[in-house]
Amino acid sequence: RFIFSLGYKHEVIIDWLEKQYPQLDKVYAIEATPLGTGGAIQLAGSKAITNNVVVVNGDTLFNIDIKSLYQFYQQQQAACALALKPMTNFLRYGTVTLNENGLINAFKEKQYCDTGLINGGVYLLNRQHFLSLGLPKQFSFEKDYLEAFTNKEKIAGLAMDNYFIDIGIPEDYNKAQQDLHP
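The structure assignment produced for this chain is given below.
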């Protein structure tokens, strides 16, 4: 079951999904006003029917092993588990640091790094717990949840060195088109 969190021009996306994937079990969570990444996840989470949900950013492609991430999430008894991408020679992303048990102990701002782990935009989330936190209607999932709750609850990270691309800039969007449609 897929829940699509949509806002601007949602009609275009819904029309495309209905035509391309008519048999797909899908639900739409439509933002009347922008809610930020956290508010969008809350809205979509309110439409979920399971307690554990996979959340995927719409502007990244990350080929993860979902079974491994789920097993890690269960073993950690985490409120949230992130798929992390190892990177080298980068400036565009903030880094994530882990303790020896795989729990995240810090998110660091964007700066040049020789090597590091970045947030790959794929999460396993305990939906009921997340919705019970009383977060505002509009907020940033990354800043106001992940960073703010890092030392308050179990937020874990698992490195996966698989194909990753952030299509948020035109150059990488074009590269993704070439990679996916050779």
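Interim note for the steering committee: Residues 136 and 158 are 28 Å apart (CA to CA). The helical segments are 10-20, 36-45, 66-76, 127-132, 141-149, 170-180.
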